[in-house]
């Protein structure tokens, strides 16, 4: 069963490659608890089957970078990109696209959080293992307010423009 509008997102651990050390985060992979990250925030989340994959790199991530300021102007505190990849890959993908902190590139390396959401996608037959379905969501204080899950292989409803329109 997958998560739906009105549900609280489950807690879980997501990894993020930190480029610049701060008082609370060392350079390199750092783990964060979803429950802590969502508390008191409005978050636009989009998930992709994999970093560096064609649609994800050419359209999905660039759309959220392009509309980042508009999303923030509508009250979004953070934009997350989640993929079943490791933090090193997500960090490299973010550098490749000059994300520069505009989108948090969050890794769900073993698909544990994605499975809790009920949004996993088994691509084992294609040699890619368990991945995430392509989707977008709006979380307000950890509650799902919008959820746009793509049909297999499509890119029609999880784009940044659709989520931005749902904020109006």
Q: Topology of this structure?
A:
Layout: E1 13-18, E2 28-33, H1 34-38, E3 42-48, H2 54-66, H3 68-73, E4 78-83, H4 87-96, E5 104-107, H5 112-117, E6 120-122, E7 130-132, E8 135-140, E9 143-149, H6 160-167
Parallel strand pairs: 3-4, 4-5
Antiparallel strand pairs: 1-2, 1-5, 3-8, 6-7, 8-9
What features would you describe in this structure?
The chain is an alpha+beta fold and 168 residues long. The protein has a single domain (13-167), classed as 3-Layer(aba) Sandwich (Glutaredoxin), CATH 3.40.30.10. The protein is built from six helices and nine strands, in the order ββαβααβαβαββββα. It has helices at residues 34-38, 54-66, 68-73, 87-96, 112-117, 160-167, and strands at 13-18, 28-33, 42-48, 78-83, 104-107, 120-122, 130-132, 135-140, 143-149. It is globular, with a radius of gyration of 15 Å. The model has no long low-confidence stretch (mean pLDDT 92).
Strand order of the largest sheet: 2-1-5-4-3-8-9
Using the coordinates above, name the CATH class.
Alpha Beta
Low-confidence spans = none
- The appropriate CATH architecture is 3-Layer(aba) Sandwich
- Mean pLDDT, to the nearest integer, reads 92
How many structural domains does the protein architecture include?
1
The amount of beta strand, in percent, is 25-35%
- What CATH calls the topology is Glutaredoxin
CATH superfamily, please? Glutaredoxin
For the secondary structure, the number of strands is 9
